[in-house]
UniProtKB/TrEMBL annotation:
This is LytTR family transcriptional regulator. Pfam families: LytTR (PF04397). Residues 181-277 form the HTH LytTR-type domain. The lineage of its organism: Bacteria, Bacillati, Actinomycetota, Actinomycetes, Bifidobacteriales. InterPro entries: LytTR_DNA-bd_dom, NTF2-like_dom_sf. GO terms for molecular function: DNA binding.
Length: 286
């Protein structure tokens, strides 16, 4: 970090991690050096090849990153070293429940303009940057031998898994009446975010359905008990409240798992990010 902002090396490493889990093998393939060497997290992965990484990219689950740290720790000649860690869980709606904390070290060669700020990344020549080394530090311990993505929870982010379980309970079910007079019973887990629409509130569901209720957003949140921190809903704007489980990232906007982007006041970005993190990460990870 330089002046509290990410260096280009740190930003490029963040993109590397996200591209890996999003299955972007083409982007990854273009960033490996010919003499790349890697070390995997599992005991049998003392050495991993580019082909190993690209194969794994195709079967990675869609992850929601709840805590990330990227730190440029060394620079010598044309080599730049970045270390970090991330905590993540499988995005809701997939056929598994999984969370873990991973540490890593990467080494880049020929990274130009590496001390520029994150916002300049796209405007600077990083096309020559090649990944020389990638080391994953802690193993993903499988609960069943040979299971690639075990149904287990990382200790530090068990709150996210607990929140999923809580939202799926029928005791947390909402009964609403939409503006047509129809009544619906909804699980909190199926509610992605709510939006103010004048004197109404629009409920955006994970399956793409929308329900409109004749109640202002503030009154709706109060009436349904979603103001309670234990429900996992966070007011990110006067016109929006989101289910923390479905937030992919918070920057100049809130990006949801389904790709929807919601506004967030610039002055509240840090508070919103910390509040969403607190809903998903145990206290000792904050």
């Amino acid at each position: 970090m330089i002046g509290g902002r990410e260096t280009v090396a740190e930003s490029l490493t963040r993109e590397l991690i996200h591209r890996f889990y999003s299955g972007d093998a083409r982007w990854l393939a273009g960033h490996f050096a010919p003499d790349f060497t890697g070390i995997g997290a599992q005991s049998e992965q003392y050495r991993i090849s580019v082909d190993d990484i690209l194969r794994n990219t195709g079967v990675m689950p869609d992850l929601v990153f709840v805590r990330e740290r990227y730190e440029q720790v060394a620079q010598s000649g044309d080599m730049t070293v970045v270390m970090g860690q991330y905590a993540a869980y499988v995005a809701p709606g997939q056929e598994m429940a999984f969370a873990d904390i991973q540490r890593f070290t990467v080494i880049w060669r020929d990274l130009q303009n590496r001390d520029l700020q994150n916002r300049d990344l796209q405007n600077n020549d990083v096309s020559r940057a090649k990944l020389v080394h990638w080391h994953l530090s802690n193993p993903l311990r499988a609960s069943v031998k040979g299971e690639r993505f075990p149904r287990r929870t990382a200790l530090g982010i068990s709150r996210a898994m607990s929140l999923m379980t809580e939202q799926k309970r029928y005791q947390r079910e909402l009964q609403i009446q939409d503006v047509t007079g129809a009544t619906h019973r909804l699980l909190l887990f199926d509610l992605q975010y709510v939006e103010s629409a004048g004197h109404n509130t629009v409920l955006h569901m994970t399956d793409g359905a929308k329900y409109v209720v004749h109640r202002g957003l503030g009154a709706f949140l109060a009436d349904t008990g979603l103001e309670d921190d234990r429900c996992g809903f966070v007011r990110v704007h006067r016109g929006y409240a989101v289910n923390a489980l479905y937030v992919r990232s918070v920057s100049d906007c809130v990006t949801m798992v389904n790709g929807d982007t919601l506004p967030v006041p610039q002055r509240k970005v840090t508070v919103v990010r910390e509040t969403i993190a607190a809903a998903r990460i145990d206290d000792d990870m904050a």
